[in-house]
């Protein structure tokens, strides 16, 4: 299997990358980042794209892949709706439309979030826009597509959050991870990656994948 990963400089994308590198079913991994992650592995190739609204300019690099794990995301904190929509919906649309034109048989997985509003009409700005983004992906016509809606994510295997106060919270809560893992809605950075890989090989009828479903799918052997 050959996969594309966006957002590997962040916590979710890094967790997915680690699992893809470790999984024997994954032969090639293409990372698309704004800044280099500096990883050296025979499976991994990295392409630097300064403007994520311009995936069309690197379409020659995106040929021949079986799945795309779109893990890139930004916090809506302190951001107006226009800018958040540009960095969330418009970026995803640029990637998805480019990939669909190249290969509609690719499996596209988008990391959304718990509480996303599929109606696109709710009062919460980020939830509406993520709902709009999910709807775009799920209705585009890909061979298969999923919207991951994790709630709490526990970082594992050295993965850290780029947001300093998030990482501080993780550090404080680390002694309680063993308790948090018992909650069905709580997942891990490792399980996100495992679930994405497993879905590529064993599709599911559900397309909105919450924390509990992520853990269930990740546990399949």
Short description:
This protein is an alpha/beta fold.
Fraction of helical residues = 25-40%
- Principal-axis shape: globular
Order of strands, widest sheet: 3-2-1-4-5-6-9
Major pleated sheet: 7 strands, parallel
What is the end-to-end distance?
Answer: 17 Å
CATH architecture heading: 3-Layer(aba) Sandwich
**CATH homologous superfamily label:** NAD(P)-binding Rossmann-like Domain
Counting structural domains, the number is 1
- Level-1 CATH class name: Alpha Beta
Which H/E pattern describes the elements? Answer: EHEEEHEHEEHHEHEH
In what range is the share of β-strand residues? Answer: 15-25%
Q: SSE layout and pairings?
A:
Blueprint: E1 2-6, H1 11-22, E2 28-33, E3 44-48, E4 67-70, H2 81-102, E5 107-111, H3 125-138, E6 144-149, E7 153-154, H4 164-173, H5 177-180, E8 187-188, H6 189-201, E9 208-210, H7 211-218
Helix pairs in contact: 1-6, 2-3, 6-7
Give a written overview of the molecule.
The protein has helices spanning 11-22, 81-102, 125-138, 164-173, 177-180, 189-201, 211-218, and strands spanning 2-6, 28-33, 44-48, 67-70, 107-111, 144-149, 153-154, 187-188, 208-210. 38% of the residues lie in helices and 17% in strands. 39% of the residues are buried. The protein is globular, with a radius of gyration of 16 Å. The protein has seven helices and nine strands; from the N terminus they run E-H-E-E-E-H-E-H-E-E-H-H-E-H-E-H. Strand 4 (67-70), helix 2 (81-102) and strand 5 (107-111) form a beta-alpha-beta unit. The protein has one domain: Rossmann fold (3-Layer(aba) Sandwich). The strands form two sheets. A seven-stranded parallel sheet has the order 3-2-1-4-5-6-9, with helices on both faces. It has a two-stranded parallel sheet with strand order 7-8. Helix 2 (81-102) packs parallel to helix 3. The protein has 221 residues and is of the alpha/beta class. The model has no long low-confidence stretch (mean pLDDT 91).
